[in-house]
Amino acid sequence: MTTPSHWRRTTVAVSVAVTAAVALLSSVPSAASPSASADQAQASATHQADLTALRHLREKQEDAWARGDGSAYAAIHTADADVVTFNGGHLRTRQGIATGMQRYFDEFLQGTRIMTLTEQTRFSEPDIAIIVRTGCVLWPGESTCSAEALSINTNIALKRHGKWLYTSFQNTRIRPLS
């Protein structure tokens, strides 16, 4: 009679064997066709071009913020975008983002700029990028982030008709539990 512990040992042994076989096979150079290598090179070039375009999008965001220009800030978002601000404000649509951000710039964020400290980008699809950044708002005269100003945000960017735009942005202040 086969016991449950026998099945567990057999399952572990099979798992180890499969893992070893996959590792062995993945280390063997493939006899891929030249077109497969060309496809990989094209994909890599496209990926780099997308990362460059997303960096330019971030630079436009930083520039619009530094100028206190709500319309320019909104212009890097899709028409139906959502922005959730550090204080929980929810700005909906490009027009709502323009109006809301202009209010923030005029009433609360005069003369500030944003600084990105870290950024991780992954593509869930070729035309969807998930970008997680840490950074801060720098007040006039500041050149480094203070602990009180640190935040982490998530941006979802979509590529439509060859152009990247943000469709969702959510920002949270970093407040470690004590």
Automatic annotation (TrEMBL):
Residues 1-31 form the signal peptide. It comes from the Bacteria. Keywords: Signal. Residues 54-164 form the DUF4440 domain. Gene3D superfamilies: 3.10.450.50. This is DUF4440 domain-containing protein. It comes from Micromonospora cremea. The lineage of its organism: Bacteria, Bacillati, Actinomycetota, Actinomycetes, Micromonosporales.
